[in-house]
Amino acid sequence: MTEDEEPLRIVVADDHPVYRDGLALLLGSVPGLEVVGTAADGAAAVEVVREHLPDVVVMDVQMPVLDGIEATRRIAAEAPSVGVVVLTMSEDDGTVFAAVRAGARGYLLKGADQEEVVRAITTVASGGGCSVPRWPGGSRSSSPWAPPARRRRSRS
C-alpha cells in the first residue's frame, strides 16, 4: 500500500467476544487494513455496515438475533459494493452454498491462518471470490467461485 492509498475498511461480526476482538486486533495490525467496526450478532452487523459502509465484512454464520446468512443477504441487498467473507467452523455444503446464495464472496474456516484471512479480504475487496483451500465435500475445483470446466467436443 502506498501513502496515498486508503486502507481497506473492515467490519468483524462474530458472537464470541474473544474471537471477534482478537480478530479485529489482528486485522487492525495489518498494514492496509482498518477495522472500522465490530458486531456481536447479524442484526448489529447490518447496522454497522449501514453506519460505516466498509469494503469487506468478515462474518460468522451462527450468531444470535439474526444469523450470518440472513445478515449477508441483507447486506448484499442494501450495500452490494460491500464484500462479505464468511469465516466459520461449518464445513457442510448446505451452509457453504447458503452463504454463496446469500451473497458471500468468500468462505473460510475458522482454522484459517492470518495470511489466508488477509488474502480473502483483499481478494473480495478487489471483486474476486475465494474459498477454503480444500472445498468441503470435494476438491477446490468444486468451489462456486472456480471457473466452469471446459467441455470436450466429440469429433464425429
From TrEMBL:
Which residue ranges are recorded for the region named Disordered?
A: 132-156
* A GO biological process held by the record: phosphorelay signal transduction system
What's a single GO MF annotation on this record? DNA binding
Q: Which InterPro entries match?
A: CheY-like_superfamily, NreC/VraR/RcsB-like_REC, Sig_transdc_resp-reg_receiver, WalR-like
4-aspartylphosphate: modified positions: 60
> Which residue stretches, if any, does this entry annotate as coiled coil?
none
Identify the keywords attached in UniProt to this record, alphabetized.
Answer: DNA-binding, Phosphoprotein, Transcription, Transcription regulation
**Residue intervals passing through the bilayer:** none
Which Gene3D superfamilies does this one have?
Answer: 3.40.50.2300
UniProt lists compositionally biased (Low complexity) regions at 133-144
Q: Which Pfam families match?
A: Response_reg
Residues forming the Response regulatory domain are 9-125
Official protein name in the record: Response regulator receiver domain-containing protein
